[in-house]
C-alpha cells in the first residue's frame, strides 16, 4: 500500500517521486517529483514566438488510483 512519504514513479516522467499527500479515501495521491520538468503549456499570449520553456523542480502531481486490488 502506498503511503505518505513513499517513493513512487513520477506520473509524468517516470522518475523518482515521493508521496506528499494521500486523500482520506486513499484513492488520490499527490506526488512530488525530484526531477526537473519542463513546463510545456505556457498561457496563450500575443507573443507566442517568445514562449519560454522553463524547467521547474519539485512539481507536484495528483494521481488517482485505478487498481481495484483490496
Ligand atoms: Zn517527474
Give me the secondary-structure topology.
Elements: E1 7-9, E2 16-22, E3 28-33, E4 36-39, E5 54-57, E6 60-64
Antiparallel strand pairs: 1-2, 2-3, 3-6, 4-5
Zinc ion binds at residues 10, 12-13, 15, 17, 33, 35, 37.
Question: What are the salient characteristics of this protein?
Answer:
binds zinc ion, two-stranded antiparallel sheet, SH3 type barrels, 0% helix, 70 residues, 4-stranded antiparallel β-sheet
Distance between the termini: 10 Å
CATH class: Mainly Beta
Rg result: 15 Å
Q: Say which molecules are bound, naming each kind only once.
A: zinc ion
| Low-pLDDT runs | none
Q: What letter string, H or E per element, gives the SSE order?
A: EEEEEE
Number of strands: 6
**Percent of residues in helical segments?**
under 10%
CATH architecture: Roll
Tally of alpha and pi helices: 0
Reported for the largest beta sheet, the result is: 4 strands, antiparallel
Strand fraction band?
Answer: 35-45%
Return the domain count: 1
Report on this model:
- The chain has 70 residues and is mainly beta.
- The chain has one domain (1-39, 55-70): SH3 type barrels.
- The chain is 0% helix and 41% strand.
- It has strands at 7-9, 16-22, 28-33, 36-39, 54-57, 60-64.
- The strands form two sheets. A four-stranded antiparallel beta sheet has the order 1-2-3-6, with no helix packed on it.
- The mean pLDDT is 83.
Amino acid at each position: 500500500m502506498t503511503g505518505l512519504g513513499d517513493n513512487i514513479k513520477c506520473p509524468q516522467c517516470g522518475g523518482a517521486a515521493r508521496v506528499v499527500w494521500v486523500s482520506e479515501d486513499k484513492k488520490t495521491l499527490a506526488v512530488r517529483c525530484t526531477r526537473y520538468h519542463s513546463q510545456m503549456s505556457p498561457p496563450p499570449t500575443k507573443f507566442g514566438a517568445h514562449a519560454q520553456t522553463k524547467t521547474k523542480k519539485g512539481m507536484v502531481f495528483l494521481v488517482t488510483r485505478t487498481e481495484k486490488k483490496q
